[in-house]
UniProtKB/TrEMBL annotation:
PANTHER family: TRNA N6-ADENOSINE THREONYLCARBAMOYLTRANSFERASE, TRNA N6-ADENOSINE THREONYLCARBAMOYLTRANSFERASE, MITOCHONDRIAL
A GO molecular-function descriptor: iron ion binding
Subcellular location as annotated: Cytoplasm
Annotated catalysed reactions: L-threonylcarbamoyladenylate + adenosine(37) in tRNA = N(6)-L-threonylcarbamoyladenosine(37) in tRNA + AMP + H(+)
UniProt source species: Alienimonas californiensis
EC number(s) reported in the record: 2.3.1.234
Cofactor (UniProt): Fe(2+)
One Gene Ontology biological process: tRNA threonylcarbamoyladenosine modification
Main location: cytoplasm
A single GO cellular-component term on record: cytoplasm
Co-factor: note: Binds 1 Fe(2+) ion per subunit.
NCBIfam families in the cross-refs: gcp_kae1, T6A_TsaD_YgjD
Protein name: tRNA N6-adenosine threonylcarbamoyltransferase
Zinc as UniProt keyword: no
């Protein structure tokens, strides 16, 4: 039978039912965006409480939509790392309880690997071997993936994650949370060449990026530079906000695309996998499509519904199931990054 996957690492409460052939029988995502909006970011306490309220209804809905009962299931998969500890605990506790009550094996899933596995769910086994990019709210990581199971970290951001930069730029431009989609929307009406912004580390030969300097450059362009106050920033009207959003997005995309080029060169892999919330960004999708066409590489970018957090991507658990790798009922959550 299929497996039930549970994801609660940040502020999406999600459950999915995935068949052994990796087809997604159901995928339910309850976003808490509306709860965190007025705080401009995820409030951990609010997130864990909302997970507690939503987790069982979301699981029930996923089972109903897939038209399966607990006795049909082969296993329960749950994301145990990385993420907010209070959020992770809710999903993991639910998964352990259901595994015990329904007498099913438990499988622990790495959230970042799952972001990459979204590409396997969408494109099939031929997605590997590949070079992978996870570009999300907390991470900007490149991997070498010889197959669906192995992923070696080969590069990352040295400071902020790409999604974090979108979120911070949104906040300083007064755009609503979550920042990524609202920056993208504002950028549609702006000129990406209007504000000259740096492309930090882009032309350096190492596989690393930095978004903190770019974010500061946007801040100075938007609000003025305290180090040279004699050059006043233009007024922050709707037009200027659109230009800043478009210019920031263009710089971020340039850097990400440039480093994907380098990662492909370094790994020599025939395919580029891209997952994580920022992979939903339209300008990035266009930039990566151009790059892969230019290089004759196959682009397997997660479809929109598998970019931001969801449980279907935890179909990665089938790889563990097939290898007989199960988690004990007393397994723990690991909030930080677990290196491959
Ligand atoms: P991580 O996966 O690193 O643990 P997370 O799970 O919170 O972090 P995701 O849910 O994968 O992150 O992605 C959320 C991030 O994606 C947010 O930073 C959000 O602003 C960004 N994002 C979502 N849509 C877009 C978009 N269209 N353009 C740019 N960024 C986007
Ligand atoms: Mg989220
Ligand atoms: Fe994520």
């Amino acid at each position: 039978g299929p497996l039930l996957a549970i994801e609660s690492s940040c502020d999406e409460t999600a459950a999915a039912v995935i068949a052994a052939d990796r087809s997604v029988l159901s995928s339910v995502v309850s976003s808490q965006a509306a709860l965190h909006e007025r705080f401009g970011g995820v409030v951990p306490e609010i997130a864990s409480r909302a997970h507690v309220e939503r987790i069982l209804p979301v699981i029930r809905e996923a089972l109903a939509e897939a038209n399966v009962t607990p006795t049909d299931l082969s296993a329960i998969a749950v994301v145990t790392h990385p993420g907010l500890v209070g959020s992770l605990l809710v999903g993991v506790t639910a998964a352990k309880t259901l595994a015990a009550v329904w007498d099913l094996p438990l499988i622990a899933v790495d959230h970042l690997r799952a972001h990459l596995y979204a590409c396997r769910i969408a494109y099939g086994e031929e997605a590997f071997p590949a070079c992978g990019l996870v570009v999300s709210g907390g991470h900007t990581n490149w991997y070498d993936c010889p197959d669906a199971v192995r992923a070696t970290l080969i590069g990352s951001t040295i400071d902020d994650a790409a999604g974090e930069a979108f979120d911070k730029v949104a906040r300083l431009l007064g755009l609503p949370y979550p920042g990524g989609p609202s920056v993208q929307q504002a950028a549609e009406h702006g000129d990406p060449t209007a504000v000259p912004l740096p492309r930090p580390m882009m032309n350096r030969p190492e596989l690393a990026v930095s978004f903190s300097g770019l974010k500061t450059a946007v801040r100075y362009a938007a609000l003025g530079n305290p180090n040279s106050p004699e050059v006043p920033a233009p007024p922050l009207g709707e037009r200027r906000i659109a230009d800043l959003a478009a210019s920031f997005q263009a710089a971020a995309v340039d850097v990400l695309v440039g480093k994907c080029d380098l990662a492909l060169k370094q790994t020599g892999r025939p395919t580029l996998l891209v997952g994580g919330g920022v992979a939903a960004n339209r300008a990035l999708r266009v930039g990566l499509t151009d790059l892969c066409e230019r290089r004759g590489v196959r682009l397997c970018i997660a479809p929109m519904e598998l970019c931001v957090d969801n449980a279907a991507m935890a179909g990665l658990a089938w790889e563990s199931f097939e290898r007989g790798e199960f988690a004990p009922l007393d397994c723990d959550v690991t909030p930080g990054l677990v290196r491959a």
